[in-house]
Design brief:
The protein is mostly helical and 175 residues long. The protein is 55% helix and 10% strand. It has two domains: 109 residues, Arc Repressor Mutant, subunit A; 55 residues, no CATH class. The strands form two sheets. The chain has a two-stranded antiparallel ribbon with strand order 1-2.
């Protein structure tokens, strides 16, 4: 099963309670991958935080296949599954190991209902921490705040960035 098909059960779980936009879906998939579920999407920093053009392509591919419907609502999009597409049965769940499925459920439960704004600061903060780690730079709270500010300017207050750091620490992203 390819990475596009592996998205279906994730989107199905998220859309049970809401119709996420593309920004929320991007951030939730980023957080799922950061928990260790290998979906195969490469992320880089973008205007609204970590973004994967591969994931954006996968979303549109699923739309073209009739699996997803993307409604444009003002400045956002609402993503929903097309129930009679024939591709959204429970069997997709089997494409994940039990541990992966639990991680996916945990991330969706804790993050999918957050606003795109909140997910932007949480994922951007995590992205900065990961880049510092990759570059061998030890980080602390002040260096994370500074790193986020380099990318986002004054969009987020120091307190909001510190709140994102606390959430990421509590949820085990900074291990």
């Amino acid at each position: 099963m390819d990475k596009v098909e592996r998205l279906i059960p994730i989107i199905k779980k998220i859309t049970r309670n809401q119709k996420p936009g593309k920004k929320i879906l991007q951030k939730v998939v980023y957080l799922i991958q950061r928990k260790g579920v290998k979906l195969g999407f490469a992320f880089s920093i973008h205007y609204y935080g970590p973004y994967s053009s591969e994931l954006d392509y996968a979303i549109h591919r699923l739309e073209m296949q009739g699996v997803l419907e993307i409604k444009h609502e003002g400045m956002t999009h609402q993503i929903s599954l097309v129930e009679n597409s024939g591709l959204i049965g429970e069997e997709e769940i089997e494409s994940f190991e039990e541990k992966e499925f639990r991680l996916i459920e945990d991330v969706i439960t804790k993050f999918a209902a957050k606003s795109a704004y909140d997910l932007e600061i949480i994922t951007t903060t995590d992205y900065v921490a990961q880049q510092l780690k990759v570059n061998g730079v030890p980080w602390d709270q002040d260096s994370l705040v500074e790193g986020v500010r380099k990318i986002k300017g004054e969009k987020f207050t120091k307190e909001k960035i510190e709140e994102a750091i606390a959430i990421l620490q509590r949820e085990g992203y900074f291990v």
